[in-house]
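I'm stuck. Please check this protein.
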Amino acid sequence: MANISVGDIYKYMGSDTHAPNNVKCVRFHPSITSVTHVFQDCTQLISVVLNEGLQKIGNCAFAGCFH
């Protein structure tokens, strides 16, 4: 599955190992069950919408996000 960027919302589908550093808003696809370091150092990240099926957020999943 490819990740999709619609306007300012980055739809995380699970295929990237690292999101673009300039991502501001993220919405997780319903099929995502875990996330590790994908959003590490995304310094402009201000909003994250997790899905109901998410079971695990790794230690460094959002390391370096400052907002």
